[in-house]
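Section 5: illustrative case.
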């Protein structure tokens, strides 16, 4: 066998092996890694806004709103702050189609789920009725869990 052919053959085998490894890692690890990162970022966003609420509300609402808008734009999430009756206090609408804003929102459903939990925190996946896409949703009580001041809802898209 000529040397050129051997070099070409080994090079092709190397390329096939690299593509095979890339495909394997993408199929089996990339999706799980992405989902873990989305959940972690959304949970951290909820914690940051909850801490900002405890720190700034009601004395410095402007600082709270600034923190909320900053977190929403940085993490590509929609945020909704509601009072204890479920009325909108401050939205931060970043996603094009989310389940928190608009006429077909899921806010009352999420508030009922938050009130059913012991720790005042809920997370899960909801199907967006407009797009039929899975949406990641987090919600928590603002203030004391026994008599909440309001509710924080965060919506993130599963797919980029």
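Designed sequence:
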């Amino acid at each position: 066998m000529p040397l050129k052919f051997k070099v070409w053959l080994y090079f092709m085998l190397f390329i096939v092996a690299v593509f095979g490894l890339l495909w394997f890692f993408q199929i089996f690890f990339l999706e799980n890694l992405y989902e873990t990162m989305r959940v972690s970022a959304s949970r951290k966003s909820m914690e940051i806004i909850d801490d900002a609420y405890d720190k700034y509300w009601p004395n410095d609402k402007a600082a709270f709103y600034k923190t909320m808008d900053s977190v929403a734009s940085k993490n590509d999430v929609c945020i909704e702050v509601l009072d204890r009756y479920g009325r909108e206090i401050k939205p931060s609408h970043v996603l094009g189609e989310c389940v928190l804003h608009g006429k077909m929102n899921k806010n009352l459903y999420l508030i009922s789920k938050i009130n059913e939990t012991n720790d005042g925190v809920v997370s899960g996946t909801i199907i967006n009725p407009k797009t039929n896409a899975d949406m990641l949703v987090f919600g928590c009580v603002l203030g004391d869990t026994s008599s909440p001041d309001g509710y924080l809802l965060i919506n993130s898209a599963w797919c980029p």
